[in-house]
Amino acid sequence: MSSKLNFRNLDKGLFAAPILIFLIGVFSVYSASFKSRELLVHTLVVKQILWMGIGILLVFLILRVNTFRLRDWAWPLYFVSVFLLVAVLFTPPRLGARRWIDLGGFNFQPSELAKLSVILVLAHLFSHKRVESLSKRDRLMPFIIVGVPFLLILKEPDLGTAVILVPIFLAMLYGWGFRARALLIFLAIGVLASPLLFFFLKDYQRTRLLVFMNPNLDPLGAGYTIIQSKIAIGSGGLLGRGFMGGTQTHLQFLPEKHTDFIFSVVAEEGGLAACLALLFLFGVIVKKGYALCGQTPDRFGSGLACGITTMIGFQAFINIGMTMGLLPVVGVPLPLVSYGGTSVITTMLAIGLLLNIHLHKPLF
Question: Less CB within 10 Å around the terminal CB: N or C of the chain?
Answer without folding.
Answer: C
